[in-house]
Structures are given as structure tokens and as C-alpha cells.
Amino acid sequence: MLHEHFTPRHHFDLRLEENGVLRSWAVPRGLPDDPAQNRLAVAVPDHELEHLTYADADKSIADTGTWEEHDRTARRIVFTLHGRHGARRYALIRTGTDWLLHLMKEQDG
User: Fold this and answer.
1) Which residues contact 17 (CB under 8 A, 6 or more apart)?
2) Among 57, 90, 93, 109, which is most exposed with the fewest C-beta within 10 angstroms?
């Protein structure tokens, strides 16, 4: 799930369902569309699954789909997002307190 927020500043929230909750990261500039340009991803508290369909005047659902994990360490999660417009492989890379969201050069199929 990708939520688009319009307040207080325009940003997106990436939400990955795991163990009955939505793990969430605020991504101020949205998902990267070029492997050369990483995006800041700030971990935010987990959300309940009911948040999957939540929208209001300040928040809309930008994309929905599934995700597939390929590799995980303490510092990195490699996964594919299967959204409405196809599949893209990303890595979330821990930089300390924050994360970077990276579009992988190698994409499936």
C-alpha cells in the first residue's frame, strides 16, 4: 500500500503488511523511479491492518498490491512491490535512525 498525504507537507507512506500489522515508512519524495536516486524513508509506528482502506480529505490511496520479500538482514530488506501498474524491486537500507529507499537496477522479468 502506498498512501499519499497532503498535510502537513506532501509525502507518501509505504506500508508493508507483516505479522498482522502494517510496517510503515514516510517517504517525503515518493518512490524512486531511477536507481541512481535514493529516497529518504523514515520509519514510523506500525499501523493496524484496517488502515489499508483508510482515506480522508488529506490522505488518499496512491497504490495497492502485494509485496514479496527476497532478502533481509538487520540493515537491508530487498523486496518487490506488485502494484496496479506492474512490479518493481526495491531495497530499504538502514542508515542508522532512518532508511534509504533504493530502486534496484536489476528488475525481475
Assistant:
1) 1, 23, 49, 52, 67
2) 109
Domain span at residue 32 reads: 2-103
Residue pointed to by grid coordinates 523514515: 42
Cα separation values, 77 from 18, 62, 81, 98, Å: 13, 22, 12, 13
Given a contact cutoff of 8 angstroms between Cβ atoms, the answer to whether 31 and 39 are in contact is yes
Distance CA 105, CA 73 (A): 19
Task: Return d(Cα 27, Cα 24) in angstroms, integer.
Answer: 10
Instruction: Provide the domain count of the chain.
Output: 1
